[in-house]
Amino acid sequence: MAQGVEFGQRTDSFLSWFKSLEGASFSDAIQIVDLRSKNAGRGIVATRDIPADTTLFEIPRKAIINVQTSELPSKLPAVFDPESEAMDVDGDVSPQLDSWSSLILIMIYEFLRGQESQWKPYFDVLPEEFNTPMFWSDSDLDALQASATRGKIGKSEAEEMFRSQLLPVIRSNQGVFMSSENHTDEELIGLAHRMGSTIMAYAFDLENDEDREEEEEDGWVEDRDGKSLMGMVPMADILNADAEFNATCQAHINHGEESLTATSLRPIKAGEEILNYYGPHPNSELLRRYGYVTERHGRYDVVEIPWGVVEEALAAQLSVPADVISACKEKLDEEELEDVFVLERDTGEPNSDGTFAGPAELKEMPGDLQEQVKAFLKGIKKLKPDLIPDKRKRDEILSDVMLNSLQLLESRYPTSYIEDRILLKRTDLSDRIRMAVEVRLGEKQLIQEAKALFQSSSNENAGKRVKTST
């Protein structure tokens, strides 16, 4: 009960702080609510019917946390100067901070300032724990099975960056980073992980003035290449998100000169949650970045097909030794060969009001995969002409290799599609295990749909499209 009271008090303090900001506005038709019972933290709902194109809230640019609003860059100009060369703990030149690492350092600085930071009420409503795989145990990660997600977590790489670039800056400027001397290196690395995950989940990419003309109409997008101006935007990150913007509403973030606004895309009924849109992410990526999955994002699920799996299927189908495949590879331009291919549905763009334009359809195997297999078959034909006498036989082999590749990939998952469906009916699964099962189940569903393309072809239904229910 006490925890619930504190949660509400922090919400109230944050809202009061936000409303006190010069240039900020918060519609009286919405309110921040406690959605922890749905594992959604805080959210924003409509308190009465809201018409389309209504401004929900407005955020002054000076309230955003970034390199332009924090005083840290002025205190440590050499660290944030793009022309300078930073030094690591061994005195060696280390890479200049990118937008992500710069914002992590600023977030650590502001967090350690405590009450002296103008953003203290905002930090109080940011999550202290995350459900992203970055923080999972090995047993939790094992539940992802053959999903490519596990190879994209990047925890060790992130920690290496924290130790080599951020920790030396903090330790050599303890007078700037308040109370940092009271924290061990491991505690500061843990804080860097927390702030990095906060940025991964909530930060927006803010355009510079010179980039304004090139900015897309959709406004803010995430920065993942380290080149853009990133910022933490109070109130915008209170909005939760879904693929169809919760079916009836979405908050659309636009750039203004001195402020940023959230606007309803279509009518919102009283009591409905107002949802943002993070993009057409598969559940695997949604889990990696934000720590949750949703049914609606299942339409965007993908399966990564390693070329090694296809090579194995190709060699088995033609009954040729590995050295024949290697000989074919040597005759091709290795720089043009792909290592991984992405199987995905044709989903189309969402409607302007945030709804789906139509069902998601799996129409064919990845085109680049088919072309690469054809290139190998052409090479094999030169070495073993009897194996591929004509185009009809080549197309038949291509189809069989595609199907066998899918079956090989499917066999890498220890449990079946049916077993996972049954498993999800259990009520004793932890949140992390449940999300892992939902991710791998979505991938198995897509593999099933891809296999059906070839199975329908063998039943004289070639070209039949497979539609999803999402």
What portion of the residues fall into strands of 2 or more residues?
5-15%
Largest sheet: 4 strands, antiparallel
Tell me how many strands there are: 16
Q: Which strand order spans the largest sheet, edge to edge or round the barrel?
A: 1-4-11-10
Question: Roughly what is the average pLDDT, rounded to an integer?
Answer: 86
Distance between the termini: 38 Å
Rg, Cα atoms, Å: 26 Å
SSE class: alpha+beta
Shape: globular
Number of helices: 15
Which percent bin holds the helix content?
Answer: 40-55%
Weakly predicted, low-confidence segments: 86-94, 208-226, 246-253, 459-469
Describe the protein's architecture and organization:
- One of its GO terms (cellular component) is nucleus.
- It is a single chain.
- With 470 residues, the protein is an alpha+beta fold.
- Helices cover 40% and strands 12% of the residues.
- It is built from 15 helices and 16 strands.
- The protein has helices spanning 2-20, 72-75, 77-80, 99-113, 120-123, 138-142, 155-171, 185-202, 283-290, 307-318, 322-331, 367-383, 391-411, 417-423, 431-458, and strands spanning 25-26, 30-34, 42-46, 55-60, 86-87, 93-94, 204-206, 229-231, 240-241, 251-255, 259-264, 275-276, 302-306, 340-344, 361-362, 466-467.
- The strands form 7 sheets. Strands 1-4-11-10 form a 4-stranded antiparallel sheet, with no helix packed on it.
- A hairpin with a 5-residue loop joins strand 5 and strand 6.
- It is globular.
- Mean pLDDT is 86; it is low at 86-94, 208-226, 246-253 and 459-469.
